[in-house]
Amino acid sequence: MIEKLNKNLILVIIPLVIVAPFSCDLFLPSLPAMSQYFHVSGQTIQFTITIYLLGMAFSQLICGPLSDRFGRKPVLLGGLISYAIFSMVIVCLTSLKWVLLFRFLQAFGSCSTIVCALAMVRDFYPKEKIIKYVAIIFGTIGMCPALSPMIGGYLQTKFGWQANFVLMAFIGISLSLIAGFILKETHKTPNTSALAPKMMLGNYKNMLTHRRYLGFALGSGFAYGTIFTFFTVSASIFMGQFHVNASHFGLLVALNAIAIIVGSIVASQLSPRIGLSGVMLLGGALITMGGMVLLSLSYGYHLTLTGLVINTFTVTLGVGLIRPTGNAGAISLFPANVAGTAAALCNFMNFGAGALFGFVVGHLITTTVHPLAISFALLGLATMAAAFISRPKAKPLASRAETVV
Q1: What is the pTM of this model?
Q2: CA angle 83, 199, 205 (to 5 degrees)
Q3: Which residues contact 226 (CB under 8 A, 6 or more apart)?
Q4: 57 near 351, Cβ under 8 Å?
Q5: 316 Cβ contact list (under 8 Å, min separation 6)
Q6: Which terminal Cβ of the chain has fewer Cβ within 10 Å, N or C?
Q7: DSSP 369
Q8: Alpha-carbon gap, residue 343 to 328, rounded angstroms
């Protein structure tokens, strides 16, 4: 029975991990319409993305220890149900201030899916296989930017922005029923002290002072900062500066999502050969290269839509290499009884970086893509530095034949 669950667990997890990224990307084509509906600027409506990422970041710190204490399944179900409720509330709102509040609360519900999914992988799979299954998870997540803007563009054209949140509520209810009937608890020995303040702070301190964990988490965070910066400003750039319509915008974003999927697949194949840190280093180099080329084109006034798409594809390919390796490296360094906490802290840094850089760059974008290109280059360099931090210490000559994690 355990072996069967071990083999099929990832098939149950896959539908669950789409919730958080789907909620971030689905209504991107609706941002211009929402700015008109709420009578605010394009920059102001981008707060609906930033506030969601902030909610995702801070809620991780709560969901992780909760899943270590009470198990993965109850935390997951509670998150999905609350996510569905808050999504329907947003449909009924007419004030942007209230929309921002409930987007924040919506993020608290959806964050449970990613935290519990990563923790369940750590619960059940051996360390040497974690990267394989985390790559599958992030490959699945990478599909969301490919599919959700196209779905959102269709819903916006046919029904308006509110239809996006109705769909989110439907997904939340459906997945809570699926998880409730099918998913089995993987955390068989709950950590009864996981919620004790002293224990929580001690666990977070141990992780933040662990050199390799910090390197993996920072690298993953810089990758998230890169991708969420792009998605935050993508509507302004593609639809505002290059006058792409909502349907075509979804297709262009889908190209970058394909790059993330390809990167995740390549990461799982490369990591046994060059190690997780090596894959992260390669991803950082691609992000840096894409940012520098994009910057040179934009300053030379030779940037075309094709040039923008090619260079953002290069950047998101690098992101695809980094996200699974950073998360797999981080959660594999600690035992299963604190897997939720390890995943939560890593995701806090991920979504916190996404919110921070998305907010900053989103407010710098005016009539050029210079700020976006500069942020790509700097975040790529920062990721490369984190990759060096995450490398294991040099081993004595007699033991160097051991495999690098």
Answers
A1: 0.76
A2: 90
A3: 287, 315, 318, 319, 357, 375, 376, 379, 380, 383
A4: yes
A5: 227, 230, 256, 257, 259, 260, 263
A6: N
A7: S
A8: 9
Q: Supply φ then ψ for residue 235, to 5 degrees.
A: -65, -40
In the chain, what are the domain boundaries?
Answer: 2-392
> How would you write the pLDDT of the chain (405 residues) with one tens digit per residue?
344 444 567 777 888 888 888 888 788 888 889 999 999 887 788 889 888 888 888 888 888 888 888 888 999 999 999 999 999 999 999 899 999 999 999 998 888 888 888 888 888 777 777 777 888 787 777 777 667 877 888 899 899 999 999 999 999 999 999 888 888 888 877 788 778 888 888 888 999 999 999 999 999 999 988 887 887 777 778 877 788 876 677 678 778 888 888 998 899 889 888 999 999 999 999 999 999 999 888 886 678 888 888 999 999 999 999 988 998 888 888 887 788 888 888 888 887 887 787 777 766 665 568 888 888 999 999 999 999 999 987 665 444 433 444
| Per-residue tokens: 321 | 């290499």
Could you tell me if 251 and 154 are in contact, meaning their C-beta atoms sit under 8 angstroms apart?
no
> Which residue type occupies 157?
T
The CATH number assigned to the domain with range 2-392 reads 1.20.1250.20
The token pair at 400 is: 């160097």
Cβ distance 114 to 17 under 8 Å? yes
Which residue, among 145, 385, 128, has the nearest Cα to 268 in the 3D structure?
128
Which residue stretches of 300-369 are H helix? 305-331, 339-364
Report the distance separating Cα 217 and Cα 371, nearest Å: 24
